[in-house]
Each structure stands twice: as C-alpha cells, then as structure tokens.
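Lecture 7 notes: from sequence to structure.

We start with a single chain of 253 residues. Read the sequence below before looking at the structure.
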Amino acid sequence: MNDDAVFMARTKSFTRRARRLNESMQRTWDTFGPRYVVDVARGVGETTVDPSVKPLSFRKLFGRESLVRCEIGAGNGDQIVSAAAAHPDRDFLAFEVYRPGVVKTIAKAHKAGVTNLKILEVDAQQAMPILFPDACLDELWVFFPDPWRKARHHKRRLVQPAFAKEVVRVLRPGGKWLLATDWEDYAFQMRDVVEDCPGLTNPYAGMNPDPHDPDGERGGFAPRWPGRLMTHFERRGLDAGRVVRDIVGQKIA
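Now the structure, written as tokens:
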C-alpha cells in the first residue's frame, strides 16, 4: 500500500479548510510565526507529522521545567492566550490545523506579550503519539470539538476509546482531561468514554444528573470550569438553545 492510500484511509476529526492568508496575516506569520509555531517534519499531507520524528523535549521547547497544559483545537486562540498570560509560571501548547486561526493566535499572543506558548499546526490525533512523551501534560483541553452530528459520521469524533488511551499516556498522574460540548449526545459519549477508560476516573461520577440522559440518573457531569472563557463557539450554542456540558477525566495516580 502506498503512502497516499494510507493517508486517505485515516479517519480525521476535522475537515479541510482554506489555509490562504491575506497580506496582513502573511506579515504576521512571517514576522512572529517562528517565535510560536513548532517546526516539525511533515508526513503525507499538510497536517501530519513524519512518524520517524523523535518526541519533543518540552524542557528544550520552553527552556525550563514546568507544568504544561495543552489545548486541542485552539481556534482563534482566545482560550489558550488568556490562560498563558494569566499563568506565566506554566507553559502551554496549542493544536490548530486552520492556518488563519493559528495566525490570529500568534497575533494575540504577541500583543499580550506571551512567551510561554507554542503552537503545533498539525492533527493532534495523529501527532500526539509521535511528538508527546509519556506523562508530559498537566492538563489537556478539548472544548467544543466538531460534533459530527450525523450518526454515520460519529466515527470521526475525536473523543473515542482509542484516543482516551492516548490521553492517559500523555497525562501525568493526577493530570486532568477537561472537555466541554454543546451537543447533547456527544456529551453523553464523552462521559461514557471517560468512565469506561482504564486509567481515568471521573471525579464527578454520579453527580449532576441530566434530565435528558439516556442512562437516567447516572450523572457524571462537572460544573463549568471557571478557567474556560465564554468563546463565540459557546455563545453560539447557547443562543441556539443548546445546553453546554462539562466533563472531567483524571488520570489515576
């Protein structure tokens, strides 16, 4: 089987979007991109990492030993830049495959004077097993991932049992996987994936039962994480009448 066949067969949790930059964005990319974007060897396609690449050294990447937190799907960077600015003693990684979103994140980080943020313009699902060493993250955030609403597309959702095992690998003991979604059945799936995953525990198991839960009074939903900004993704869901649900998975020490 050739490389193109392997690439096409990979089920991705995102869709391709235009990566073209306008003149202003291109200047930002050229001027400040090298300061924030991690340069990694590419595999087949624009968002994959060469499988032969060695894992990153976070100590070398950030120039110090610290607690590292990572967001998958950083969008325009509001959440990750705000967190990095508020916690200069910690380091932050952002995954984002949409280049205009990466450029907006870079611009916001530069404006805020943030130096403790790095961006990976690659598919997290494919890249994490290659780039991330064991027990390297304090927290992993997955906020409002693509819900892939149609049942036949649910296999493309990021939060799946196989991905949960990878999350367990990269979290340090006691580290947390923070999730949020405004899509009802995806919230129940996230809760199930967390609670069914060896190595993870749900600190809110049995709490906050949901009247729409197909499992009755099972519960398991967390209060809204105070560190999560009200982004336009969340506001859009609330304006449409959807309920936002938070889920937490914690790595068993």
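The chain has a mean pLDDT of 92. Keep this in mind for problem set 3.
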